[in-house]
Write a structure and sequence with these properties.
The chain has four helices and five strands, in the order βααααββββ. By secondary structure, the protein is α+β, with helices and mostly antiparallel strands. The chain has a five-stranded antiparallel beta sheet with strand order 1-2-3-4-5. A hairpin with a 2-residue loop joins β4 and β5 (about 120-130). α1 (about 10-20) crosses α2 (about 30-40). The longest helix is centred in the first third of the chain and has 14 residues, at about 30-40. The protein starts with a strand and ends in a 38-residue tail after the last strand.
Length: about 170
């Protein structure tokens, strides 16, 4: 599957029939997208109803409601799917969800697993994927001059055990 990007309005048009019970998601990707729309509309009942029944009780309803209430959703990119088709019983969907919270833009990158139980798809688990942290400046070695300008080696200055940062 090639990556698909959806703006919020297009995704709502596609997924609201699932939330209203007028249709049932036929793929893991459709289930994932419908859960994103459920978050964007604050439909916590749908989010809980589509969570794997074996672990549904572990979901914190209040935290889910709070997050859905305080975030503004902008769009979704489904990067890839593994299985999760109409004839599969399990699937995996990797996506990036775009949202804003507390005035900051966020990209939530996740790989979610889904399972079909009695003909319906359910969210099972997720792994949040993060880009590696890159240093803005080179790492200071123990024997390098201390960046504070003292002229001492880093290990004898700010690198010493218990030393405060410059």
């Amino acid at each position: 599957m090639s990556a698909q990007t959806f703006d919020l309005d297009a995704l709502k048009a596609r997924c609201l029939p699932f939330l209203r019970g007028e249709a049932v998601p036929q793929t893991a990707g459709d289930m994932m997208a419908s859960r994103y729309i459920a978050y964007s509309t604050g439909d916590v009942d749908y989010i809980l109803a589509t969570h794997d029944p074996a672990t549904r009780d572990e979901t914190d309803r209040e935290a889910t409601e709070e997050w859905a209430k305080t975030a503004r959703f902008h769009g979704l990119s489904i990067l890839s799917s593994k299985a999760g088709g109409p004839s599969d019983d399990e699937g995996e969907v990797e996506f990036i969800a775009l949202y804003e919270q507390a005035g900051r833009e966020h990209e939530h990158h996740e790989r979610s697993t889904f399972r079909r139980i009695e003909g319906k798809w359910y969210f099972v688990d997720a792994k949040v994927l993060r880009d590696p942290v890159r240093r803005a400046e080179p790492k200071v070695g123990r024997n390098d001059p201390c960046p504070c300008g003292s002229g001492k080696k880093y290990k004898k200055c700010h690198g010493a055990s218990g030393a405060s940062a410059a």
